[in-house]
Amino acid sequence: MEKDIIRMNREFREQQYISRRQKDYEESLAREGELGRLNRLGNLKAEELQIELHKQSMHAKYAAKHEKHTKICSHIVHQIVLLSEKVRGFLHSTATLLKDIL
Length: 102
What we know:
By secondary structure, this protein is mainly α. It is built from 1 helix and no strands.
């Protein structure tokens, strides 16, 4: 009779150990799943921030490039205008000489 009670207690404890291990395992899976989900959310936010910073830096780069090209084109146009003024002045000053020769 005592042996039966001891055996039943041992089986009961083993069942409790098994159920506790199963419960611990499920809790650890749930914790890992939640940590994984939070980690993915954190990574997504970091990735969005990196994309936004990249877009801002590319916009600044393109704006600087556009300004540089605008300055170069403006300088070239200014040089062309100066050259045309010099040609006009030269033609104006030599117009009377050319009329005499022709």
